[in-house]
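Assess this one:

_____
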Amino acid sequence: MPASLKVALLQLKGCPTKQESIANAIAHIRLAKDRGARLIILPECFNSPYSCSEFGRNAEAIPQGETSQALAKVAAELGIYLVGGSYPEKDGTKLYNTAPVFGPQGQLLCKYRKMHLFDMDIPGKCTFRESSVLSPGEGLATFTIDSLKIGLGICWDKRFAELTACYRQLGCDMMIFPSAFDPYTGPLHWDLLGRSRALDNQMFVALVSPARDPTTEYVAYGYTLLCDPWGRVLCRAKEEQEMLITDIDLSVCEQIKRQIPVLSQKRADVYELKLKK
């Protein structure tokens, strides 16, 4: 495994149109590449308002749609690994919240469909029901950069500790969660969930949010962050559009496994986690 990897987390603002959102993303991808990033990550639902009434209108096939084609093109041009945040995917009669990954030749390396749909009701604070329009994904998705294996989830997925633990079983040393948390649960749980998933599984964890816009129907929390396998926050954005770029020390993964060997001390004779698909 190489000694380090330069990662860019792009906390992007929403734009009035899908085409403007794509253009804004492409401009920031270029800036991140200029600053040396090899892995670039976009936020959840970056090309569409986060709204059940808007998902269908903005949905497209992946990788045939305009968003996918634009991201594939810039990934190939710049020779980068690009996690396309997430955006609404249409497949037959079904809609999904999907995170695609494009490689340095513009190839679709994998795509992950949000498995746990965001159905939450805190009266007066936040009520949302993704399952009213979206279908759940049915499988995990991973890709590799050199020998670094990376797993994908989307937002609500990170509340389910078993999911990240399954990725750990698959050998992932990093998880990426494009995430549009709400401003009520964000201050309570955002850092806690990112740090917990990182510490429990001794891996890097990236949570990449849209920028906050108080004028939208659903207001994203912001505060994009990256945690290391010790559970430390390496970098954190604020609420506005912002680019975070950092070098992650990949040797930390093996260090912590040696020094705090909890992964090898699990009592499989008493309990186990089983991936069914």
Summary: The chain is about 25% helix and 25% strand. The longest helix spans residues 18-34. The chain has one domain: 4-263. Residues 4-263 form a domain with the Nitrilase/N-carbamoyl-D-aminoacid amidohydrolase fold (CATH 3.60.110.10).
